[in-house]
Prior knowledge:
47% helix, single chain
Amino acid sequence: MANRIRCACQSCTIRSLMGPAVVITLGLLFLFSEMRGGYFDFSNTWPVLLLVIGAILLASALAPRDGHASGSVPPAAPAGTPGAPQNQFPGQGQ
Length: 94
């Protein structure tokens, strides 16, 4: 996991906010349930959680993906450098 490429495009940045947004929304819904009760009970307000998730997914889908880094394999080292894979058959596969 240490050599994993982190993408900095807007779509991935927005999508990375999913976890914190869900935790904050759940916290607020339970807070409203404890403070007010009645109509603000969690059984009545849980669709707000679905709206938050949907809004983040929609924003992520509409955001540009310019500079998106796909894959988790680091770029290969140039030939001849230490640590680069050696060709067993010189002159082959060129």
